[in-house]
Amino acid sequence: MESIDLLVLRTARDWLAAGERVLLVTVARTWGSSPRPVGSMMALRNDGRVAGSVSGGCIEDDLIHRHTTAHGGDGLPEALPALVQYGISADEAHRFGLPCGGTLELVLEFMPSLSSLERLLARLDAGSLARRILDLNSGQVTVEGASTPERFLFNGRRMVNTLGPGYRMLLIGAGALAEYVATMALFNGFKVTICDPRAQYLDAWSVEGVERARGMPDDVVRAFSPDLRTCIIALSHDPRLDDLALLEALQSPAFYIGAIGSRRNSQSRRERLIEHFGETEASLRRLRGPIGIYIGSKTPPEIAVSVMAEVLAAKNDVSLPDELSVSQAKHARDPLRFTPALSRRERGPFGVNG
């Protein structure tokens, strides 16, 4: 499934190419609570069709009404970009369904340049980062390359939105849990790759839209060239596969690196990587395990919800409280059940994520 940003840009491009009149709307600033983050976009066609969103629906309805009934029903005049705010007063916030105290400032681009959208999409489709710069004084749009992801910027007259490439997920181990995680990742706009050198697992894979990699996981991780929009999750329960992939992943800037396993299994993995591969507590600081947030998950689909929630929190730069950690939550509920000092022989088989 394509990311919402790409869907909006691609739809606006197609509408413009077909001769339709289009309004491109971007969330530029927010105060208080807001339904959508800055940089979120929607495209509005002169007949009321919409792609994307900037709120929960009420603001979209108002924009549709304003810009399809303006100018005698012709709507969407060719004009310089404009700013509009919603939710300034409590009454207006209530009217538009905004949270208490929430205010949105939107940038409206009337008939955005088709050629600039084509240049932008060409870069994104090639897997490159692209910076879209809008000068509100002139309406001029500049598209240029970017080396690293950047935060959305807006100073009142200049808007800079760094886009693409899309977020990617590499899963190690093509088991049942991986199928649920992959399905959820696809719905959240991730491009997903599954790696498993075991033919009996990979040949049974049933989730459409996922790329398959049959090589050894460490080789696949290297070839994957993880970047700041990549997450890597080891789900095979086989240290011969998971450990090598994780070691390679830790050399990358991936925003999320984790492995399934019980608290004992996770502790055992850390000891293995330190004892046999020269890692340190400092170098393993980015390695998550047990992965997920604590929701009492037991089944593969429940565990997938837990894992995907933690991935999305990391993606959105949200720090989760310690109480949501699987390790912390389970220790609080049963502090005597897990003792890291147990020998490997006493630790038993691999667990799930507790």
Automatic annotation (TrEMBL):
<protein>
    <submittedName>
        <fullName>Xanthine dehydrogenase accessory factor</fullName>
    </submittedName>
</protein>
<dbReference type="Pfam" id="PF13478">
    <property type="entry name" value="XdhC_C"/>
</dbReference>
<dbReference type="InterPro" id="IPR027051">
    <property type="entry name" value="XdhC_Rossmann_dom"/>
</dbReference>
<feature type="domain" description="XdhC Rossmann">
    <location>
        <begin position="169"/>
        <end position="311"/>
    </location>
</feature>
<dbReference type="InterPro" id="IPR052698">
    <property type="entry name" value="MoCofactor_Util/Proc"/>
</dbReference>
<dbReference type="InterPro" id="IPR003777">
    <property type="entry name" value="XdhC_CoxI"/>
</dbReference>
<feature type="domain" description="XdhC- CoxI">
    <location>
        <begin position="15"/>
        <end position="66"/>
    </location>
</feature>
<dbReference type="InterPro" id="IPR036291">
    <property type="entry name" value="NAD(P)-bd_dom_sf"/>
</dbReference>
<dbReference type="Pfam" id="PF02625">
    <property type="entry name" value="XdhC_CoxI"/>
</dbReference>
